Structures are given as C-alpha cells and as structure tokens.
C-alpha cells in the first residue's frame, strides 16, 4: 500500500534547488508552465520506500510578496494546493540572508523542512550550522545536503515524509510586537466576518499581507462582504510606519537567532547575543527563568510588605476606633466587618499586585520576557498551551488575581481561556495558612510533605484539565508561537510605571467593586437575623452551613467546616478566622489547632480531604471577579466555578475512600 | 536579469537600484534618501541586522529587513 | 581565552554548588541547620537551588571556555550578572524585612542582626563584583547603550 504525498521545493534563486530537483526526480519529471503566466513549472516524482512523492519545484524567490510573478506563483501554490510539506532549500554558505524567506514561509502555516545545501562548501569556509539548533529555534527540521553530489537527499526526503505525517505541528512564527499584533488581531476579527475568505487563506497571513500593502490580497478582499470592516480598520493605522516596522522585526529575529544557530557564521557576538547564548541555552534556560521568577516574587513581597503592613495597621486602627466609638453595635459591625473588611480585602491585594506588575513590566521592557516565553514554549506545548502561559501559571502561586490578569498577553482566545481556567489550581499564597494549620495538627511529622504534595497535586490537576479542555470543549491546535527577540535594553522607569499603572488600575476599577459588593453580602448573611453573634451558628451563614452540610457529609465535613468553606469563597485567608470564631477560640492558632484535634468529627483522612478540597474548589471571589472581567463571559466564569467545585468534590471523595488504606483512619 | 535584494550585496560593492518593492509611502521615504530606480548605492558595512550604505554621497543606516525591499543590479563580480 | 577567566569560572562553578547543596541539606535534614549557622549558611532551600544554578552557569562556562567555543565568555558574564542580581534581591528583601520590623513591629523577627547579611548568596557576589570590574565593563556598557 503506497503512501502518496506532495512536496514543494522553495528557496532563493541560486541555492541549488534545480540540481536537487533533478537529482530527486531524474527522468520522471515534466516541464510545463504555471497556468496563465510565462513562468516555467517543473514537477516530477520520486519514490522513497513505501511512499510515492510528487515534487513540485517552485520558482526561486527572495520573499513572498506580490511584487513579482514568481513570488505570487510560489505562494499561490502553497496556499491553494496545500502540499504536505515544503522543503526550504537554503544556501548554507550565505545562511543569514536566506532566512528572510524562511520567516515568510513560516507564516503560511505549512509544514516545513530545511535543506542546508552546499554544506560542503560551508564547512570549508568554516561555517558550521547546527541542524538541531535550527530545529530548536525555528521548529523546522534541518538536514545537511550537498545537492551537487546527491548527498543527504535520502535523509532529506525521509525527514520530509516524517514531517508530513506529524499532526498537529508545533509551529513557530514571527511576533511583531504588541502594537502591530493588536492591529493584526483587529484585522483578523474583521476578516473573519467573511468565512469564505478565511477558509481560503490563513487569516493571520492575510492580515499581515494587508498591513504590508499586498496588492493581490487587497484585490481579493474588494469583493468580500468584509471589505468595509477591513478598510475601516486599515484606515486607523499608519501603514508606512507599520510596513517598515514589520520588515525590521523579521530581521530582528533573524539577527537574534543567527549567533545561536550558527555561532561561526557571525563575526563576534554583541552583549545581547551573549546573554541570549545563556538565556536560551537548552539546559540552563529554564532553570534561569525559574530562578528569576522566584527572585521576582521575593522582590514583590519585600517591597509590598511595608505597604501591606501599613494598610493592615490603618485598618486595625480604624476598626478599633469604630468599635469603640460607634453605636449601635450592628452598625459598628457593618462598618467593621462589612465595609472595612471589604475594602481591606480589596486594598490588601493592591501593593502585591502593583509591584508584581511593575516587576513584570520591567522584565518585559528589558526584553527578557520574550526569551522566557521562548524557553518555556516547548514544555508548555506538550501540555497544549502556548509558551506565554507559563507566566500566569507561575504568578498564580502567589495570587490568582494578578495571574489571571496577566493572561492578557496571550493572543489566541482559546489558549487564553484554557490558561485562565486552570489558573485556580495553582495554589495561591492565601491557602497556605490553611494547609499549615491542618497539616500541622493532623500530620505533625510529615506536614511539609503533605503541603508539598498538595502543590504538586494542583499542578497535576492543572495539566490534566488543560489536556481535557483541549480534547473536549476547546479543541484545536495551540496557536503558533509568535517569537519576538527585541534587543535587550535597560527599561525606562517611565514606561514600566505606565504599564504597571494600566494593569493595576484595571484591577481596582473592576474587580474592586465586585469584591466589595460580595463582602457586604457575606457580612449580611453572617449578621442576620438580627441579634446573632457574627458568623455564628444562628446566623444565615450558619444556617446555610447546616443546609449544605448533608451534601458534603460524604466527605466527612461537619457544618463548621462547611461554613468556613463558604467564607473561604470570600477570601481564603478568612477560612482560619471563621473557624476560630466557630470553635470559639478566636484568632489563636494554637488553641484552634487543639480544638480541631479534639473534635471527634475530624480525622486525619477528613483533614486530608479538606485540604484537597480547599486546593481545588472555587478560587476566592476576587479571582472569580477577575475571571469574569478577563473572559468577558458569564458562561465561562460560571463554568470555572462549577468545574472547580465538581473536581474538588470528586477529589475529596476519592481521598476519603482511598486514603484510609495509607493513613489508617485516625 | 540578476536583480537581487540590496541585503545580498557584500560590503565594499556597488549596485544600481532597479526597483523598490514597497507601498507608496515607503517608496517615497526611500526616494527621499536617494534610493530610487537608477540610483547607485554602495554597501559600506553589514552588521547584525543592519547595513550602512552610501547613496549620492550620503551615508544611511538601513535595517536588513528594509534592504530586502530594495532590488538592485549588482556590478559585475556577483554576490558571492 | 584567558586562563584567568577559566580559573575564575571553574572556581565559582565549584564553590557555588557546594554552598548550594549544603544549604539545601540544611533545610531538609533536621538539626543540621543549627550547626550550619556557624558557617553562616541559612536553611533556605530555594535559595540553595539558586546557588546551585549560578554555579551551574559558571561550570558550563568553564567547560565552554576550556573547549574554546564561540560565545563561551557569555556564561561567565551572565554568571556574574546573576550572582549580582540575586545578591541585590536578597539585600532588598532583608532590608524590607528590617524596615517592616522597625516601622510596624511586624511579623518575622524584631531585631535585625548583621549576621543575617553574611550568607552565601550575598558574599559570593563579591568575587563577581571584582570580576565584573576586571572583565565585564565593556559588556555592561554595551547593554546600557543598546
């Protein structure tokens, strides 16, 4: 049973493409004309093992614009005929200048293989291109060939066949910087109003071509219903500036990659190249990134701590003044627990959020973040997520609120959605005190291990959820990784502060209001009916706890735990406080620990189930507010909440039934 | 008939511009620098991603990306 | 490539990981931390990993320098850069803790002993400062101009 695939050969003129074509096809070739033009078309056949290959030799071109017939013929074939693989033949002795065409081929969304032709002469010149590095940076398999001697051609074809068979493909492409990418995104939205158009041409490619004033594409859209929307979008843009910037960006990437892919090709490395040499190193790159992120967290805590202390101090002082000075008592409680509590929750996040965003802005403006996304890309792809997803995931370990806001930089909507949905499983800092308390009481000798296990469990569930979503509700291949490698530079204070302010103030405006609102509602439930002690059994919250308790009874939770979990929805930090109230010991952790230990309804297994539940169930309301803001959809927000609850319930249930075999029940 | 992009011209060589493959705005900008069909350009040096060229007695720095849009006829000696 | 760079890289590449591993062990093995305090090594596990990483960068660099690969000195420069970055971060962190304690009598220790500052992640940056001055001036000035 023979396989049949179609391969196109592309490349600059004078790279030895015809020689390779002739060697591959021998006498089984046919020369004709491309339809409608006076450009020679050569096609032929070759057989490798079980596979019959139709090979088409595309005209040699320097790029894929609409300025020459050759280029139009070449790109039309790739777009319309959709060959299984395109073999990009490059002249290894002049590697860098061939890469311009490579960047354009990468935007066509077709599987690519690179032939490093004339590699014998290249080596004589002392030029050693590392094929595995080419694969690492461009995500294009590369094979050394000497077309004139027929060397490497078998391996080339076999690599091409293998590449044709892989699906889906991990694609890399050029990113053009935030501003231009925004234009592209808007154009794609306009283009997608005409499904016929976008079925024919890749949307992103069309958008890029339109921005560069491609005449052929401009003609194509004239008859499309999307024409007006597109024209309106284009009118908002300074196209000359954009065209120049885009050409610059392509070469910026080439210039950044060249020293890493072929160190002997370049005459000396700049400071920027040297840093990249280490920052994108396949072994050291990821650890360096992780270490720097840890450093960023340390800095965030360090700078934020004084502000947080100041805010707490002020809130406490205010609270005492209110308790002392205001009657009736319910009003004092309203102001204290409701308003001040609510405002306090919102403000409590502020220092951390602003400073974290400031540090991120600095990392982004310095150019390092682009490299970080690059090193994390392959790892993230195996989970089905884009490289940029790693940053929100990492921030999530500190606090889910800024983490979800940080997903804004992810271009593809589905990718962004999945990243947001799995973020709550990154166990945020507010849950830690709960872990410490329960693990310390019920697993005194292995508390640290239990907590570590919880964090790992969170990551595992995040990864599995991502895969699940990819397979079911958000299918599709991850969008191509858009690479940018701007030169490193010292970030200016002003731009970083502006970025920080943009993101931070958004939090205050939107999330802040919602959080405050919910805080008041919870206060209401905890204080009514009139006369009950705040948050006690008699209040609505307590009643709610009793009502819900049967549902969670299989998990072994008593009604006090249930109430605490309800409060936990408000903010995870509150779980301990409310337990303190319910067990009658106030804020004293030690006393609370003893009380919990003494409670006959709580066992080690229950504690473990509770910990797992807290890890997974609904993130705090602030996160929910931010999820709504970032997804812009109630549907996904509700889904996120329900998904968390369901998985938490199932996981806790599993613990209750499985753990006794390991822990022994008490 | 061997027109190549300007970025293919090695340092020290001269060439004659044949066409600018860009939209009007960019064409005008480059023309203002003296880069228009028929004018002669010398490549002075080629560094990471940019070219220094000399046109009508003046020197300019061009990104290689931009230089890909300027098609030229190299003087005899070729591009190797 | 200069022998001095090779020796420096190798030296840092050995000392850093040793201190790092010891620091990690101090965090894991109960009781070890106390005896380590004598050597001014805190029991901060993650910090220990960071030390090991910086050491790895230097070590990798030493190997590349030895084989005369292009771009080998990059590892030396970046190693020094990382060592300086983390030293500064830790100093800021300690400073903030101190400020917090002074201003608000807040959580995490009321006094601020100087010995808290003499820890590997900080004092190991001293050779980097010297190295940067000796070899890195052009490298760093390139960056600021770019």
What descriptors fit this protein?
heterotrimer; B: 80 residues; alpha+beta; SH3 type barrels; six-stranded antiparallel sheet; 2 helices; globular; C: 146 residues; mainly alpha; 6 helices; transmembrane (chain C); transmembrane helix (chain C); membrane (chain C); iron (chain B)
Topology:
The complex is a heterotrimer of chains A (666), B (80) and C (146).
Chain A: E1 3-11, H1 17-25, E2 29-33, E3 40-48, E4 51-57, H2 69-81, E5 85-91, H3 95-106, E6 112-117, H4 119-124, H5 131-138, E7 142-144, H6 153-165, E8 172-174, H7 178-191, H8 195-200, H9 203-211, H10 215-222, H11 227-235, H12 239-261, H13 271-279, H14 285-325, H15 329-366, H16 368-383, H17 390-396, H18 400-405, H19 413-422, H20 432-442, H21 447-471, E9 481-483, H22 493-527, H23 540-552, H24 559-570, H25 574-582, H26 589-598, H27 604-616, H28 621-631, H29 634-663
Parallel strand pairs in A: 1-4, 1-5, 5-6, 6-7, 8-9
Antiparallel strand pairs in A: 2-3, 3-4
Chain B: E1 4-5, E2 14-20, H1 24-32, E3 40-47, E4 50-55, E5 58-63, H2 64-67, E6 70-74
Antiparallel strand pairs in B: 1-6, 2-3, 2-6, 3-4, 4-5
Chain C: H1 3-28, H2 32-37, H3 45-66, H4 73-104, H5 120-123, H6 125-145
Helix pairs in contact in C: 1-3, 3-4, 4-6
Question: How is this structure best summarized?
Answer:
Chain A has 666 residues and is an alpha/beta fold. Helices cover 64% and strands 8% of the residues of chain A.
